[in-house]
Amino acid sequence: MLRRTAELVASGANVDDVRTTVQGELVELLSLVECRYEPAPVMSTLPRIERTGAVEGEHRRWIGGEFTLPGLGAEIPVAARGHTYGRFVLIPNLSTGVSIEERIVAVALVDQLGAALAVEASAA
Asked: Out of 21, 57, 75, 78, which could bridge 46 as a Cys pair, Cβ 3.0 to 4.6 Å?
């Protein structure tokens, strides 16, 4: 997943294509019911998946040896070079646990979109 997405970014793909790819990878990786990108500024806060894979917030269940994401959803900010471009809102499947490794990979995937947006902004 990471390699495919990094290759897409490195090839100079359109930012919309990168966003769509990252969104699809997040759905698959985290077994999400819904995943959407919201450009900044965002109007509400959700529990955040941190770079370490840690998740803020409560309302998580222990399933299959892992915790689920928070029941009301979580977010991963899309940022690069000190600028926040938006976030991905992740609505979980509450019957599937998500490992810390999967959460770390999810953040790395979102970072690829952040890098593509930063390149696009610097070219403008």
From this structure: 75
Q: Which of 35, 31, 11, 34 is nearest to 110 (CA)?
A: 35
pTM above 0.90, yes or no: yes
Is residue 84 over pLDDT 80?
A: yes
Query: How confident is the model at residue 43, as a pLDDT?
Result: 87
| Cβ pair 44, 50 in contact under 8 A | no
Which two tokens mark 103? Answer: 């959460």
The residue-averaged pLDDT of 48-52 equals 95
Angle at 56 between CA 50 and CA 61, to 5 degrees: 115
DSSP of 16-37, one letter per residue?
Answer: HHHHHHHHHHHHHHHTEEEEEE
